[in-house]
Amino acid sequence: MATTLEIPTRTQVGIIGGGPAGLLLAQLLHQQGITAVVLENRSRQRVESRQRAGLLEQGTVDALREAGAAERLDREGLFHEGVILSYNGQRHRIALTELTGGAGVTIYAQTEVVKDLIAQRLATQQPLLFEAEATHIEGLTTDSPVIHYALDGQQHTLACDFVAGCDGFHGIARRTAPEGFFKTYDKTYPYCWLGIIAQVPPSTDELIYAFHERGFALHSMRSSERSRLYVQCDVTDTVADWPDERIWAELHLRLGTAGWTLSEGPILEKTITPMRSFVTAPMQYERLFLAGDAAHIVPPTGGKGLNMAVADTRQLFEALRTHYQDGDNRGLLDYSAACMRRVWRVQEFSNYMTELLHRNPEKSAFDQHLQEARFQLLTTSRAASQVVAENYVGLAARRASEAAEWPLPQAL
Ligand code: RFL
Ligand code: PHB
Predict the structure, then answer these.
(1) Average model confidence (pLDDT) for the chain?
(2) Does domain 13-79+104-185+276-361 have CATH number 2.120.10.30?
């Protein structure tokens, strides 16, 4: 069902997608008096219950604070000063704050971020239409593009100055540009993640990422009462292949180390996630700007997807703000280039973490030794650990984005 608001036909920024990117953009614009309409094709209940990310970089927390949407996050978020990597039971702690001059990460579920942003949007009485599916966009080369969408069985149009494509990996925005305009780059991995939420206090204060010869495992958390855990599984597996006993048995084996036990509890939810790296370049076509998963996907091993979506959103917001308030279009013109520098840095780190920590049945014995040597370097070199720490907390990506002198490859 849609909200009870009158259905708008014209706005300044038409936003497709009511995930973290679209909702945050709408709020930041609203604070500056710039109008927007958010079109979201799922129901509110569905959007608020999709289990996804949990790890927020400092820049993401700051953006949510700037948007006035961090009251609960500041109360309930769990700040982490370090993270643990494990290799066949041998653990190595990366002291994040110590290695980065104070930066850490915050655990606060994406579901909660989305609930906070939706509540805030509805409180401002600004348009957020659920079950409103954008079907196509017209006139992107004119100064008034039009988004066509279906709502309650009827077709509607929304005219705007700019379109923000925040509609995730399966959205329509990216497909609106002429064939061949966007270049795409991708990589899939020969394994998936099976993720669970368990009603049990976390068995660790800090996240544990484990390589094991039986495959990857991750111990994360949602609160002092709930744990979030993942195990690497095969691409052909379904949830039915993973009864609770099998999941716990693998988690014990893969996360285990001498003198530590993993507590079990009722499993509330199980989902399987494919692992994929994907980049669209550039991130703008005429008056269409892509942000978040609509433009790029990373495998979740680095905890980066949501953080990249928020970083794009901030960049796009700032570009739109200076356009409307100062008549300055430089931010809009530079949007894609500034994002791309950060996107490739984050892609590289997510790929590094993924390949470091998963068992890849397609790898040769030689490559498996290299993988172990990479892990060993982390345990013996503070410099190597610092590189991981700077990437994990988001510092490295911010520096990449600001390195404007770095030339972009011709193809971009
Ligand atoms: P979203 O969240 O996919 O939102 C896009 C929204 O657009 C809607 N939509 C449409 N609306 C109208 N018309 C259409 N035609 C539409 N087509 C689509 C969709 O219904 C949806 O609501 O994209 P956004 O906003 O860019 O946000 C990206 C993040 O959701 C994503 O990157 C993260 O969840 C990735 N991720 C993680 N990111 C982190 O930063 N830290 C983590 O710890 C982390 N862990 C994860 C993750 C993703 C995971 N999965 C399930 C993929 C762990 C997992 C398991
Ligand atoms: C999560 O808490 O869901 C989570 C944390 C870190 C990751 C991925 C997922 O790298």
Answers:
(1) 95
(2) no
